[in-house]
Amino acid sequence: MKKELEYYMKLPYTRMIREIDDEGGHYYHGTILELEGCQSTGDTIEELNDNLVEAMESYIAVKLEYGLSIPEPVDDSKYSGKFVIRLPKLLHQRLAVEASREGVSLNQWALYKLAQ
Length: 116
Description:
This protein is an alpha+beta fold and 116 residues long. The chain has four helices and three strands; from the N terminus they run αβββααα. The longest helix has 21 residues, at 45-65.
């Protein structure tokens, strides 16, 4: 079965939206997690969502035109929110000291750092 634009547009892609206040003013920035580089902005959430739909349509249309693979949404039920990572001792120490200085747990500090 050949997958067309309409097929991909109906899939439940993950939208990541951030409210921004910077030298450019107040606006919203959104990305489609599974479609690397697919992003847009808008002055309101509604405008951002409309712009993300347009960005997705363009992104997918170009991929289809050139016969490139298009990632499909991932099943988020397989993610528990937990993973184990080994660190060099000095990095572990630095993070632990920073967390202590901020008055938060190492886990909270690592989450904060990863989210940046």
